[in-house]
Design goal:
CATH architecture of the largest domain: 2-Layer Sandwich
Strand order of the largest sheet: 1-5-6-15-14-11-7-10
Number of helices: 16
Distance between the termini: 49 Å
CATH class of the largest domain: Alpha Beta
Helix content: 25-40%
Structural class: alpha+beta
CATH topology of the largest domain: BirA Bifunctional Protein, domain 2
CATH superfamily of the largest domain: Bira Bifunctional Protein, Domain 2
Shape: elongated
Radius of gyration: 28 Å
Length: 464
C-alpha cells in the first residue's frame, strides 16, 4: 500500500453493519422466533457456511448458461465450494449424511446467515439472516403444512404485528404443473414458465410482464432484456387466464387435469386442518405464487405484509415475502436415492427487521446500563461497590472509565448513548450515607433524587 494512501471505510454493495437500536431489535426478534420454533417442537441445527458446490446444487439460478451466477463460489483444491444461499440444501445434505441417527420425523430449526450474489436494495441484501423450520419424514402433509401456517402466525403476532398487518398466502405447485402438462409445454421450458408466473405480483411486472416472460422476451425500464419461455400465443393465453382465477371453487371447475385436481384437494385438506386452530383467518389462497426455487414439489407459502414500507429516501418499496417456503419431495433423494419428503418455512429476519423498524408499535427492550459517575478519584473503591451492588441485583451497570472528566462531560456522554439513569455521589452523599440518582429522560430540574443508600436498588428499578 502507498504510504500516504488512506483507506475508504466502506462496505461492498448489499452488506451492512447493524448496531444500536437496529441490532437490539434484531436480537429481540431472534429470541421470539427461536422461542416459537421450540414451542412447535423443533431441535436446533447449525451447519457450516460453505458446502461442496455439487452438494448444494444450483436451485437458485435463473441463468442457464451460468448456473452458479447467483452464489459465491470458490476453488478449494480439487473441489468447488459455495457459500450457502439458503438453509434447505444444507439440511438435505445433513439428513442424508446422518439419516440413521435421526428420528423418523425430524423437526429442525436453524438461524444462520446466507449469501446471494444478486442485486441488493430495499430490504434485500447479499448477506442476510434466515430462520428456518422444517419437518422431514413421512407425515400427514396436510397436518404438517397447516402447522407451518400456525407457526408463521404465532411468530409474527409475538413479534408485535397485528392480525391485519400480514397475510399468509398458500398454493400448491401441482395445480400449475397440471396446467403445464395439459398445455404440453416441454420440460426445458417449464422452470422458466414457473418463474414467470411467480413474478406476477413483483413491482413492474403484472400480467403484461408475465406475458412477455412467457413469450419471447421481456425488456425492463433500464433496457435490460430477459429471455422468455418462447411459448405459443395459445399456451401463454391459457396461463394468463389461469392467473386471473382467485377462488378455489372456480379453479376446481376450470382445471380438470388429475394432477391439478390433486393439488386442489391437498389445499382443501390444509384448510380443513387450519379450521381446528385460531389462525384460519390469516391464511388465503394465491394461485400465482409458485416459488422460483426448483426443488419445491407441492405445497407452497408466502407471507406478505399489509402495510407500506419505505426506503431511506421515503419512497414506497415492495420488500417481498417475509416468510416463505414449501414442500420438497426430491431434495434429499439426490443423496440417498430414496425419497425422504420434507416441508418447511424460512423467515427473512433482516427483511422483517427492515419493515418492523418503520412501525412505532414495536417496543424495543433496550436494557441500557445505569452509569455510575466518578465525582472524585478518592471514592473509586466506593463507586465500584455501587456497581457491584447493581450487577448483583441483575441491573446492568457500568462505571465511568475516566477519572479526569468532569460531571458535565460524563452526563453528555450518557445522553449521547441514550442512557436512562446516572448515579451521582460526592462528598455530601458519602458523608451522609445517601445516594443521588438522575433520571436522564426526566424533566430538567425535577429529575434528581437523593435518598438513603439502602434504598438504591428499589429506586433504580422504578426508572428502568
Amino acid at each position: 500500500m502507498e504510504k500516504d494512501k488512506k483507506l475508504n471505510p466502506s462496505l461492498p454493495s448489499g452488506f451492512e453493519d447493524r448496531w444500536n437500536k437496529k441490532l437490539v431489535l434484531k436480537k429481540q426478534l431472534l429470541k421470539v422466533i427461536e422461542k416459537n420454533f421450540l414451542k412447535f417442537g423443533a431441535e436446533p441445527l447449525e451447519t457450516p457456511s460453505f458446502e461442496i458446490s455439487e452438494n448444494i446444487g444450483s436451485f437458485l439460478a435463473e441463468d442457464e448458461d451460468n448456473p452458479m451466477s447467483d452464489v459465491f463460489s470458490f476453488k478449494d483444491g480439487d473441489k468447488n465450494i459455495t457459500l450457502r444461499y439458503d438453509l434447505s440444501s444444507p439440511l438435505a445434505r445433513f439428513v442424508a449424511q446422518n439419516n440413521q441417527e435421526l428420528p423418523s420425523i425430524y423437526k429442525r430449526y436453524a438461524i444462520q446467515n446466507v449469501f446471494r450474489n444478486e442485486k441488493a436494495g430495499n430490504g434485500r441484501y447479499r448477506e442476510f439472516m434466515q430462520a428456518d423450520f422444517d419437518i422431514v419424514g413421512n407425515v400427514n402433509s396436510a397436518q404438517a403444512n397447516a402447522e407451518l401456517c400456525n407457526l408463521i402466525s404465532s411468530t409474527l403476532l409475538d413479534c408485535g404485528l397485528n392480525k391485519d398487518q400480514f397475510t399468509i398466502n398458500i398454493s400448491n405447485r401441482k395445480i400449475v404443473q397440471g396446467l403445464i402438462d395439459d398445455l404440453k409445454i416441454s420440460e426445458d421450458k417449464q422452470l422458466k414458465v414457473i418463474r414467470a408466473i411467480d413474478k406476477l405480483d413483483k413491482p413492474g411486472f403484472g400480467l403484461k410482464g408475465v406475458e412477455d416472460l412467457l413469450k419471447k422476451e421481456r425488456k425492463d425500464t433500464s433496457g435490460a432484456v430477459t429471455k422468455g419461455a418462447d411459448l405459443t400465443d395459445e399456451q401463454a393465453s391459457q396461463i394468463l387466464n389461469f392467473l386471473k382465477i382467485k377462488d378455489l371453487k372456480q379453479l376446481k371447475e376450470n382445471l380438470k387435469n388429475p394432477l391439478s385436481q390433486k393439488g386442489i384437494k391437498e389445499l382443501e385438506e390444509v384448510f380443513e386442518i387450519l379450521g381446528f386452530s385460531s389462525n384460519l383467518e390469516q391464511v388465503q389462497t394465491n394461485f400465482t405464487i409458485v416459488r422460483g426455487l426448483a426443488y419445491y414439489s407441492d405445497f407452497i407459502v408466502e407471507t406478505n405484509l399489509n402495510f407500506k414500507v419505505t426506503n431511506n429516501k421515503g419512497k414506497e418499496v415492495d420488500i417481498g415475502s417475509i416468510c416463505s417456503g414449501g414442500s420438497y419431495a426430491k431434495l434429499i433423494s439426490r443423496f440417498k436415492g430414496v425419497d425422504i419428503p420434507g416441508t418447511g418455512i424460512s423467515f427473512g429476519v433482516d427483511r422483517l427487521l427492515f419493515a418492523l423498524l418503520q412501525l412505532d408499535q414495536i417496543k424495543v427492550d433496550d436494557e441500557k446500563p445505569v452509569l455510575v459517575c466518578v465525582m472524585d478519584e478518592k471514592y473509586l473503591k466506593n463507586y465500584y461497590e455501587i456497581v457491584d451492588q447493581l450487577r448483583e441485583n441483575n441491573i446492568n451497570a457500568e462505571i465511568f472509565l475516566d477519572t479526569k472528566k468532569n460531571l458535565g462531560k460524563q452526563l453528555t456522554l450518557a445522553n449521547k448513548r441514550e442512557l436512562n439513569v446516572a448515579v451521582i455521589c460526592g462528598d455530601n452523599e458519602f458523608d451522609e450515607g445517601t445516594v443521588t440518582i438522575k433520571n436522564l429522560k426526566g424533566v430538567k430540574g425535577e429529575n434528581s433524587k437523593t435518598f438513603p443508600k439502602s434504598n438504591l436498588i428499589d429506586e433504580i428499578k422504578k426508572l428502568i
